[in-house]
Amino acid sequence: MIITAKIAPSLLAADFSQLREQLQQIENADYLHLDVMDGSYVPNMTFGPVVIEDLRDFSELPFDTHLMIENPEDFIEDFAEAGSDIITFHEEAALHSHRVLQQIKNEGCRAGISLNPHTPLANIKYLMPELDMILIMSVNPGFGGQSFIPVMREKISAARDMIERHNSSAELAVDGGIKLDNVDEIVDAGADVIVAGSAIFGKENPAEAVSRFKNRV
């Protein structure tokens, strides 16, 4: 069986002084991964819907917006209107995850939940019918350039089994510490979407880096 995965460069690793040029260099990717951090849920801050709206004019890629923020329910409409195609939020950050998933879908976006390394898969068992994406964090969220946590391979495999048991069409994405030298095992474990930051934007030729990932998976 041939296993393929989508490649989603993470804008967190891009040169923010040249975002337009950086986006033009990764148009051969499948998604653009946008890490939104509020400095509260995670110890870092990035950008909000205004920046995403501006970027929308310079890329035709589907925007995969990853909300690492508290109270995501207060901002779903803003990020949808800014041009997001997929919106994921952290299970711990929302009081009523099912309601937030419905909010996202009502805005016409695909809905997903992100799980931190310590967050059990059991927490989303009863949300499976609503999920379009499950994002497994293979590092602790908040900073780029971290190393992949090896035990997350087990969690990726378990998430794949959960998706299949529920006959779900949800994509399984993995984010954190993914390089060319470990992407094979992550895809073999069941990942559908590979989020890579420094391994793409940290290279002299990001388009070539995307192609290398695509050839590998």
TrEMBL record:
<feature type="binding site">
    <location>
        <position position="175"/>
    </location>
    <ligand>
        <name>a divalent metal cation</name>
    </ligand>
</feature>
<comment type="pathway">
    <text>Carbohydrate degradation.</text>
</comment>
<comment type="similarity">
    <text>Belongs to the ribulose-phosphate 3-epimerase family.</text>
</comment>
<keyword id="KW-0464">Manganese</keyword>
<feature type="active site" description="Proton acceptor">
    <location>
        <position position="35"/>
    </location>
</feature>
<feature type="binding site">
    <location>
        <position position="10"/>
    </location>
    <ligand>
        <name>substrate</name>
    </ligand>
</feature>
<protein>
    <recommendedName>
        <fullName>Ribulose-phosphate 3-epimerase</fullName>
        <ecNumber>5.1.3.1</ecNumber>
    </recommendedName>
</protein>
<keyword id="KW-0479">Metal-binding</keyword>
<feature type="binding site">
    <location>
        <begin position="175"/>
        <end position="177"/>
    </location>
    <ligand>
        <name>substrate</name>
    </ligand>
</feature>
<dbReference type="Pfam" id="PF00834">
    <property type="entry name" value="Ribul_P_3_epim"/>
</dbReference>
<dbReference type="GO" id="GO:0006098">
    <property type="term" value="P:pentose-phosphate shunt"/>
</dbReference>
<feature type="binding site">
    <location>
        <position position="33"/>
    </location>
    <ligand>
        <name>a divalent metal cation</name>
    </ligand>
</feature>
<feature type="binding site">
    <location>
        <position position="66"/>
    </location>
    <ligand>
        <name>a divalent metal cation</name>
    </ligand>
</feature>
<keyword id="KW-0119">Carbohydrate metabolism</keyword>
<feature type="binding site">
    <location>
        <position position="35"/>
    </location>
    <ligand>
        <name>a divalent metal cation</name>
    </ligand>
</feature>
<feature type="binding site">
    <location>
        <position position="177"/>
    </location>
    <ligand>
        <name>substrate</name>
    </ligand>
</feature>
<dbReference type="GO" id="GO:0004750">
    <property type="term" value="F:D-ribulose-phosphate 3-epimerase activity"/>
</dbReference>
<feature type="binding site">
    <location>
        <begin position="197"/>
        <end position="198"/>
    </location>
    <ligand>
        <name>substrate</name>
    </ligand>
</feature>
<dbReference type="InterPro" id="IPR011060">
    <property type="entry name" value="RibuloseP-bd_barrel"/>
</dbReference>
<keyword id="KW-0862">Zinc</keyword>
<dbReference type="GO" id="GO:0005737">
    <property type="term" value="C:cytoplasm"/>
</dbReference>
<comment type="function">
    <text>Catalyzes the reversible epimerization of D-ribulose 5-phosphate to D-xylulose 5-phosphate.</text>
</comment>
<keyword id="KW-0413">Isomerase</keyword>
<keyword id="KW-0170">Cobalt</keyword>
<feature type="binding site">
    <location>
        <position position="66"/>
    </location>
    <ligand>
        <name>substrate</name>
    </ligand>
</feature>
<feature type="binding site">
    <location>
        <begin position="142"/>
        <end position="145"/>
    </location>
    <ligand>
        <name>substrate</name>
    </ligand>
</feature>
<feature type="active site" description="Proton donor">
    <location>
        <position position="175"/>
    </location>
</feature>
<dbReference type="GO" id="GO:0046872">
    <property type="term" value="F:metal ion binding"/>
</dbReference>
<dbReference type="InterPro" id="IPR013785">
    <property type="entry name" value="Aldolase_TIM"/>
</dbReference>
<dbReference type="InterPro" id="IPR000056">
    <property type="entry name" value="Ribul_P_3_epim-like"/>
</dbReference>
<dbReference type="GO" id="GO:0019323">
    <property type="term" value="P:pentose catabolic process"/>
</dbReference>
<dbReference type="InterPro" id="IPR026019">
    <property type="entry name" value="Ribul_P_3_epim"/>
</dbReference>
